[in-house]
Design goal:
Residues 137-178 form the Zinc finger CGNR domain. Pfam families: zf-CGNR. This protein is mostly helical and 202 residues long. It has helices at 12-15, 17-28, 34-43, 54-71, 76-90, 114-133, 164-177, and strands spanning 95-97, 104-106, 138-140, 149-151.
Length: 202
């Protein structure tokens, strides 16, 4: 049986959806202490190889800024450049490891601090997810009063809001603003045309 997510990229699942979801979670997270790093790891099934330290928290805050650069890239070219910077900083040559279970692939050395684990997971996972599923599938919520980042794992790839709650609130605003315009397109050039339903996604 494959071990728990010792490096976040044991399964191809972690190369794609899980890595991208973790990247968005890091962008949205408050990271003030080692406890915040441990909480993020627990919420996303990342088995840390070392207890997090204040230095790890500071490093993850810097990594959060780098991830936000991908989220906020306005064009395809700029998003690809930002992803390549993440890959250069966050990953190393792939290698097969016996660490924590049966043979599996790591994109980093064994026994690294939590900051490096998060970097490897999110850099490779996000790059894989966006190139395989669509470069537009990482965005910020289109609601007027929300800046939460999300990875769009919906089937149709047309998610515009971080949650159904935000979608509903924006629908109420549109209704109250009639006969004004519809909800703002507001997204980067990468965002596809909005779904007709205007919901958070399917």
């Amino acid at each position: 049986m494959t071990p728990p997510c010792c490096n976040g990229i044991v399964h191809f699942n972690h190369y794609s959806d899980e890595g991208a979801l973790l990247a968005a979670a890091v962008v949205n997270a408050r990271i003030d202490s080692p406890a915040d790093v441990a909480r993020l790891a627990a919420e996303h099934d990342v088995l840390l190889e070392r207890p997090p330290t204040a230095e790890d928290a500071a490093g993850l805050r810097r990594w959060r800024t780098a991830l936000a650069g991908v989220v906020d890239a306005p064009t395809v070219g700029e998003r690809i450049e930002a992803l390549n910077r993440l890959l250069a900083r966050g990953t190393s040559h792939p290698r097969i490891s016996l660490h924590n279970g049966p043979p599996h692939v790591h994109f980093r050395p064994d026994d690294v601090p939590p900051e490096r684990q998060f970097a490897a997971i999110t850099a490779f996972g996000l790059a894989w997810f966006l190139t395989q599923r669509g470069l537009h599938r990482l965005a910020r919520c289109a609601a007027d009063d929300c800046t939460i980042a999300f990875a769009d794992v919906t089937r149709n790839g047309r998610q515009r809001y971080c949650s159904t709650r935000c979608a509903n609130r924006q629908a109420v605003r549109r209704h109250r603003a009639r006969p004004g315009s519809t909800s703002p397109a507001g997204g980067p050039h990468l965002r596809p045309a909005p779904a007709a339903s205007g919901t958070a996604g399917e």
